[in-house]
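A quick aside before the break. I want you to see a complete sequence-to-structure record at least once, exactly as it would be stored in a machine-readable document. Don't worry about memorizing anything.
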Amino acid sequence: MNKDLTVGRPETVLWKFCLPLFGSIIFQQLYNIADSLVAGKFIGENALAAVGNSYEVTLIFIAFAFGCNIGCSVVVSQFFGAKAYDKMKTAVYTACIASALLCAGLMAAGVLTCDKLLLLINTPAETLADSKLYLDIYIWGLPFVFFYNISTGIFSALGDSRTPFIFLAFSSIANIAVDILFVTAFAMGVAGVAWATFLCQGVSCVLALGAVLGRLRGLKTEGKPALFSFPILKQITFIAVPSILQQSFISVGNIVIQGVINNFGTGVMAGYSAAVKLNNLVITSFTTLGNGISNYTAQNLGAGRLERIQQGFRAGVKLIWMLSLPLFLLYFFAGRFVLNLFLEQATAVALQTGLDFLRILSPFYFFVSAKLVADGVLRGSGLMRQFMISTFVDLILRVGLAVALSQTSLGAQGIWWAWPVGWCVAALLSISAYRAGPWKSPSSQDASAA
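That is the input. The structure line, written in tokens, reads:
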């Protein structure tokens, strides 16, 4: 069901729209968490380290899919808010064609370079073969990743966050079952983990894409929309490229950090692999809620309702802090229990590494979550320069400090402290940029008072 985000009490509208998004990302992250959980429990610590090592490389591909999602979603939201359904359909078709071409190029690059990239980040010899095997299978599933992201972006643009949640919930639960089946019953090892993800992502992609096409047919237009538009592609690219760059450089930064971590041995690698999956679950959830704020902002911008954007920001921060609190408490005080889900007969080094990581980062979830809400507003309103400045400051600080502090007496703990520093500085920049936005103009203040 399509939902107009330009009417209704902003706090209520965002709660109803964003909570299914939060549920969706929980299930989407279950793909990666299930991979690590099954690898650590049923194969061994080296397999867990291999999956975690490969995961940092897969984030580069996910960055491109995420950028296509955001670019398509924001532009479609603006056309939907303006009731320009013919342009909206053309934007969908244009995004699909451009994404297919981009995906094909990435698959070719991945097949040719992933083994070299694994060597570049100092992958230990005992995990290299499994890391490469996992990546090879993952790359062939990239079309599913891309078109699933495009589909969910379109649903979000139409104000429907419930439908993709239902698809993803079923496929994620199925992924856990197939993971266990392939690894335990068929003894496929790391390949079983990768093939389970491939198959279940394919199912969710096909279901979501079919539902999107059916939803579009229900929106009536005066004529037949064009299949491709260069001006609309330019609009999508204007939003997508900074988002791709953001995620890509963050992924490259994480790969650099992974290379530093690999120098500390398999125990630290395994502990980090488990803990970073838990952390990424939180950050990706926050990012997805920020994407919901982007859709909300774009629809209201398209409808000329600037006064609702400020109300949406405040409601978004309130919502995301309510989610931050239990996650902080869980990781800080019950981190050992959660990590034990991943680590079967964990070494003391692996378990302590995971605990240190979670206890250092989790208190700062309140800062990074507020930043991601502000980023959502900036993206939805097209203020991409300010968004990029904040993102790159965070990245540069995290990577630079991780490299520098790892060589001090802090050792691996120095790497973990780089995250909070980057988050706090970037949060100040993003929130300052939001506060200077066009909704602060006299005209928007007048509209708010009317």
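Two observations worth writing down. Residues 442-450 have pLDDT under 50 and may be disordered. Residues 134 and 446 are 56 Å apart (CA to CA). We'll return to this after the break.
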